[in-house]
């Protein structure tokens, strides 16, 4: 299990491969699921130029760790990777990566979705979007279901 | 007794500070501390979320000396 908050841009797919290469689960996993959230250039019909992501150091990591540990038990996962950006994020950059590995697809699919939704509703991160008409805190996330 | 209080994101901007140390009476709940803060600062803020020692708590949670309390708006990560 790896959970990291990153200040610098990352390539989610390269990170997923790099992490997988460090694991000893070849032959054991038959399913990989992942979700990658990336920076759009619009929100609620407004043009967004970039955004700043803030977190609560300590609590954010702790919260994500709890979500990941509970998911590993609930879905018999072989491993979980969660990466999340903070700081200034530019258009097209990856914001979040959740990846899960399991023997069969059901566990990988369901856990990846559940981890992502729990992250969205509970992990202490906040987005401030910069638009042509000034900066604005995002007030709520769009529903995932 | 004293507790340390942290504010994040839009709430930090409304409050005008990121951290403070506040004197409260023994047995004060996290929601009454929040009421005290918004009255003192004369602000309105809807849908506040509350955590103590980096875990979410219910509004009736009773604070202890030295607790780290955090107030913040709904989270918007991911």
Give the key terms.
heterodimer; A: 145 residues; alpha+beta; Aldehyde Oxidoreductase, domain 3; five-stranded antiparallel sheet; four-stranded mixed sheet; 3 helices; 9 strands; 39% strand; elongated; B: 78 residues; Ubiquitin-like (UB roll); five-stranded mixed sheet; 2 helices; 5 strands; 28% strand
Overview of this protein structure:
- Chain A has 145 residues and is of the alpha+beta class.
- Chain A has a single domain (2-136), classed as Molybdopterin biosynthesis MoaE subunit (Aldehyde Oxidoreductase, domain 3).
- Chain A is built from three helices and nine strands, in the order βαβββαβββαββ.
- In chain A, strands 3, 4, 6, 8 and 9 form a five-stranded antiparallel sheet that branches. A four-stranded mixed sheet of chain A has the order 1-5-7-2, with helices on both faces.
- Chain B is of the alpha+beta class.
- Chain B has one domain: Beta-grasp domain (Ubiquitin-like (UB roll)).
- Chain B is 24% helix and 28% strand.
- Chain B contains two helices and five strands, in the order βαβαβββ.
- In chain B, strands 2-1-5-3-4 form a five-stranded mixed sheet.
- In chain B, a hairpin with a 2-residue loop joins β3 (49-52) and β4.
- Chain B is globular and about 35 Å long.
- The N and C termini of chain B lie far apart (37 Å).
- The mean pLDDT of chain B is 97.
- Classes of the chains: A alpha+beta (145), B alpha+beta (78).
- Chains A and B meet through β4, α2, α3 and β8 of A and β4 of B.
- Low-confidence runs of chain A: none
Write down the oligomeric state. Answer: heterodimer
Mean pLDDT of chain B: 97
Q: Judging from the principal axes of the Cα atoms, what is the shape of chain B?
A: globular
- State the domain count of chain A: 1
Q: Which parts of chain B are unreliable, with pLDDT below 50 for 5 consecutive residues or more?
A: none
CATH topology of chain A: Aldehyde Oxidoreductase, domain 3
CATH topology of chain B: Ubiquitin-like (UB roll)
How helix-rich are the residues of chain A, as a percent range?
25-40%
| Computed Rg of chain A | 16 Å
Query: What class would the helix/strand composition of chain B place it in?
Result: alpha+beta
- E-strand count of chain B: 5
What sequence of helices (H) and strands (E) makes up the elements of chain B?
EHEHEEE
H/E topology pattern of chain A: EHEEEHEEEHEE
